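Sequence in, structure out. Go.
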Amino acid sequence: MPERDGYIAGVPCWIDTSHPDPEAATGFYGGLFGWEFEDAMPPGSEGKYFMARLHGGDVAAIGSAPAGAAARPAWNTYVQVDSADETAARVDAAGGTTLSEPFDVMDAGRMAVFADPGGAAFSVWQPGRHKGARVINEHGALNFNGLATDDVATAQRFYGAVFGWKVLDVGDSFQAWALPAYGDHLEGLMPGNRQRTADMGAPGFEDVVASIEPPQQGVPPHWSVTFMTDNADATAARAAELGGQVLVAPFDAPWVRMTVLSDPQGATFIASQFVPPEEAA
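Output:
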């Protein structure tokens, strides 16, 4: 996919994570995915916010953990919106919780942090100068955001009211959040995209904006991030070499080979290798 230059409302557009030792985190992810970093904070700032880039395009960010932050860092999902303030009103009406009221991030944009009725936290982004991730869907870049929940019906009512998402069943074993406007948007960027996904046996997949994941025993509902990799086994081995943990060894699933990993400070993420059906067979 060509380098992205912005998103439409209702589509996950950015990810970041806050770490107690952000410099150490840049060493891990730089070694794992080849990211290059630049601190986006003004000189003299107490905190850091390292923009991660591939081929010069933004892919993610690693910042300093704010005072009082959870002991265990996590990757954060941002959904683009036209208005962070109007979204806050919809979240409240739909039964969600506001964790951080809308605020400006210099001239980069305006954001807020919420939790859905199940407790899964997410952020929204009203873009200013920063338009979100410019490089996606390639090795070392964001491939998917996913919601792990044990109550899809409640989540559907909430995210439908807030973002207009619908549940899409893809095959017999995969559910996802779909936004019809997104498929239309992609069709404009890549004419014929709807037909290509249908030809691959996944009609409607072009509307997908995020996945729905089964809950993990003992783990509360949460949003996850998945990075694309050319080789899931090699990525898992490299993560371990760099001091991370392989939480779930590489395994095969429909269309992918994937692994669940943790960086040395405890933030978990998924690495996924696309495997076309003909190769899997």
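Check: The mean pLDDT is 91. The longest helix spans residues 22-33.
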